[in-house]
TrEMBL record:
Cellular component per GO, a single term: cytoplasm
Keyword terms of this UniProt record: Glycosyltransferase, Transferase
Upper taxonomic lineage: Bacteria, Pseudomonadati, Pseudomonadota, Alphaproteobacteria, Rhodobacterales
Superkingdom of source: Bacteria
Matching InterPro entries: Nucleoside_phosphorylase_d, Nucleoside_phosphorylase_sf, Pur_Nuc_Pase_Ino/Guo-sp, Purine_phosphorylase
Name of the protein in its database record: Purine nucleoside phosphorylase
Gene Ontology terms: biological process: nucleoside metabolic process
Record organism: Oceanicella actignis
Matching NCBIfam families: PNPH (TIGR01700), PNPH-PUNA-XAPA (TIGR01697), PRK08202.1 (NF006054)
Pfam family for this entry, one: PNP_UDP_1
Binding-site list for phosphate: 29, 60, 80-82, 112, 211
Length: 273
């Protein structure tokens, strides 16, 4: 048994004490307040799981929260892991695989992202239709465990079309405009140069961020259906009027978009298959 398998088994044993789940959510920068809405909540910090990676990013509490949200039994990752923290793609995949082992068949991912597309404005949500992996990493690199998933998983429908349709319907019901676009994932932690932003836009990206793609690959690999929504936090088109970005601005706009995403999720979660 590998170290990763031992860590996964130990963590699964601890989380099993919190009860079964139907769906899972990953909460990105500035979006952790959704965990406060969980009823009958039980929390378990990542640090209490032996060998488990611990989140160090600003605004990430670093714990699992299990309970009832909008009528469904869910597990939330209140804070995620990033490549820029020094974790490997395989380590970032670990909590996704853990959530699947707990019984989750659906994964809803949220993140904070910069707007490559000038039509996207800070404080708005964007439904992810597809992604571009510019991180240079893949969680499936190395030996494959067929008990988790196939060697060559299909990623042509990485963000489930049915779930995206449900998200659009939920946004309409909530009265929240919801753009849809392609998410470009980069490793970070430095924000992109203006030239990189223009390149990512030419490559087909609408928003750019430092998370999500590794988690989405891992989730598809282990048979989970994925939906993802970005909180647009800053203008990042790399044009002549590009302004410097600050983490304070990012977190402030993430909170604004997070309230909108919360209203969408209030309609989406009860409708999940």
């Amino acid at each position: 048994m590998t170290d990763a398998e031992r860590t996964l088994d130990a963590a699964a044993g601890r989380l099993a004490e919190l009860g079964p789940i139907e769906a899972a959510l990953i909460l990105g920068s500035g979006l952790g307040a959704l965990a406060d809405q969980v009823e009958e909540a039980r929390a378990l910090p990542y640090a209490e799981l032996p060998g488990f990676p611990v989140s160090t990013a600003p605004g990430h509490a670093g714990r699992f929260v299990v309970g009832r949200l909008h009528g469904r039994r869910v597990a939330l990752m209140q804070g995620r892991l990033h490549l820029y923290e020094g974790w490997s793609a395989a380590q970032i995949a670990l909590p996704v695989r853990l959530l699947r082992r707990m019984g989750a068949r659906t994964l809803v991912i949220t993140n904070a992202a910069g707007a490559l597309n000038p039509d996207l404005k800070p404080g708005a949500p964007m439904l992810i239709a597809d992604h571009l992996n510019f991180t240079g990493s893949n969680p499936l690199t190395g030996p494959n465990d067929e008990r988790i998933g196939p060697r060559f998983p299909d990623m042509s429908r990485a963000y489930d079309p049915e779930l995206r349709a449900l998200a659009r319907a939920a946004a309409a019901e909530a009265g929240e405009p919801l753009a849809e676009g392609v998410y470009a994932g980069v490793a970070g932690p430095s924000l992109e140069t203006s030239a990189e932003r223009r390149f990512l836009r030419m490559a087909g990206g609408d928003a750019v961020g430092m998370s999500t793609v590794v988690e989405a690959i891992a989730a598809n690999h282990c048979g989970m259906r994925v939906a993802a929504i970005s909180a647009i936090t800053n203008a990042a088109d790399g044009g002549p009027d590009q302004q410097p970005d600050t983490i304070e601005e990012v977190l402030a706009n993430a909170a604004v978009a997070g309230e909108k995403i919360g209203r969408i999720l209030a309609r989406l979660i009860p409708a999940l298959p």
